[in-house]
Design a protein that fits this description.
alpha+beta; Hypothetical protein af1432; 15 helices; binds ligand C2E; binds succinic acid; binds fe (iii) ion
Length: 364
């Protein structure tokens, strides 16, 4: 795994190390991100001895009343002794107990007033979060909140700017925002399936998901008569069309400069998504003919997600395929265009794919 992909995690690990200098029993800090659009809370970053207890996990906030209460009360929740209270039955509760943690402190994370997640501090002894310790932990929680806002806010700004650009361009006639929603959700499904074998941490999966909708941003630079052509492209037109990848990388560099995005730690993920989503696993793709592991996991994952949605959607140049036909195509091209692990991961989630299709329908 490329260490550059996880620098927000590394900063959290470092903060944890510092905090342990005077709070030695504090064995775990975990951050979960909240997405208000689907009420989902997802594991994001965890610092604990021996690696994360808990990853690639999501739960509806509505199903965790105790956390919902933390979110609305705006006050930290301290659990003095986990053994003294009944088990809640959630996976989180079970794993924390099994790992031997006795007390915990949980705080909501916000951007302005909006809930963006939670931070969990866990200690191996009961009654650890006395008022003095709680006050120190609060300082670190605020710091973590600030780090997270600094990392996420520019991404929201960027996505907002890109959505505006799409809305005002002819590009929207070729590909809809529903396509972007679907393909980024497919990319998350694939990532969850290959997370173990490709050693993808949650932070990296989250940023890939955030950036997936930008994969074709370079199409903004492709002339309408090619982008919106109702029939097949000739060789010259294909050549122009393929330029959407290098154009996309150029657009990113401009945006990075204009929005001061170089403070984002995960730009490598954005560059991989844009630059490698048309590389083929067997080396026959473009623009660089990379093969196998030379293509980043993000490139391989987004590739499968993009083609799945392109096939099952109507385009100016083609009708929509059925899901059966699209899955058959992915299986046929496994090992050629696609990393077999990514194909296997998406084929295993047919029900989830169907649910995403039902949820994000093209409105036009
Ligand atoms: P896109 O429409 O988003 O398609 C993304 C990728 O999905 C394509 O990458 C290709 O790998 C796959 N795909 C889409 N439709 C089909 C299909 O009918 N059959 C098969 N076997 N695969 C399909 P590719 O080929 O590199 O194309 C990149 C982009 O170029 C496409 O993005 C689309 O915007 C444009 N394009 C490709 N072929 C045509 C065409 O025949 N006519 C027009 N007007 N545009 C095309
Ligand atoms: C955790 O990582 O501690 C959290 C999440 C949850 O309660 O779902
Ligand atoms: C974009 O965000 O520029 C677009 C992409 C797409 O249709 O895939
Ligand atoms: Fe593309
Ligand atoms: Fe696309």
């Amino acid at each position: 795994m490329t260490p550059d992909f996880v620098s927000l995690s590394r900063r959290i690990f470092k903060l944890h190390g510092e905090l342990r200098g005077f709070c030695s029993e504090l064995g775990r800090i975990a951050i979960a991100l909240y997405d208000e659009r689907d009420d989902l809370l997802r594991t994001f970053i965890e610092s604990s001895d021996g690696g994360p207890l808990f990853s690639h996990y999501e739960v509806h906030l509505a199903e965790v009343p105790s956390l919902r209460a933390v979110a609305v009360s705006d006050r930290p929740r301290v659990i003095e002794d986990l053994q003294a209270i009944p088990e809640t039955g959630t996976m989180h509760d079970r794993l924390i107990r099994e790992a031997g943690f006795r007390s915990s402190m949980t705080l909501p994370l916000r951007s302005r007033r909006r809930l963006i997640g939670f931070v969990f501090f866990d200690a191996a002894v009961a009654g650890y979060f006395d008022p003095g310790t709680a006050a120190r932990v609060m300082v670190y929680a605020r710091l973590i909140n600030a780090l997270l806002v600094a990392e996420l806010a520019p991404i929201h700004t960027l996505r907002g700017a890109v959505n505006t650009a799409i809305a005002f361009s002819r590009f929207k006639d070729a590909e809809t925002s529903a396509h972007l929603e679907r393909m980024s959700h497919y990319a998350r499904l694939v990532a969850e399936g290959v997370a173990e074998s490709m050693e993808l941490v949650d932070e990296r999966i989250e940023f890939m998901y955030q950036f997936a909708p930008l994969h074709d941003i370079g199409k903004l630079a492709i002339p309408d008569h090619i982008l919106l052509k109702p029939g097949s492209l000739d060789a010259d037109e294909i050549e122009v069309m393929r330029q959407h990848v290098p154009r996309g990388l150029e657009v990113i560099e401009v945006l990075v400069e204009q929005f001061d995005l170089d403070i984002i730690d995960n730009l490598d993920v954005l560059r991989a998504v844009v630059g490698e989503h048309h590389e083929n696993f067997d080396g026959s793709g473009y623009p660089n003919g990379l093969a196998g592991e030379a293509i980043t996991p993000e490139g391989r994952i987004v590739k499968v997600a993009d083609v799945l949605d392109a096939l099952t959607s109507a385009r100016p140049y083609k009708r929509a395929w059925t899901l059966d036909d699209a899955f058959a195509h992915l299986a046929r091209e496994s090992g050629r265009q696609f990393d077999p692990r990514c194909v296997e991961a998406i084929l295993a989630r047919r029900d989830a794919v169907t649910a995403i299709q039902d949820r994000y329908r093209d409105s036009c």
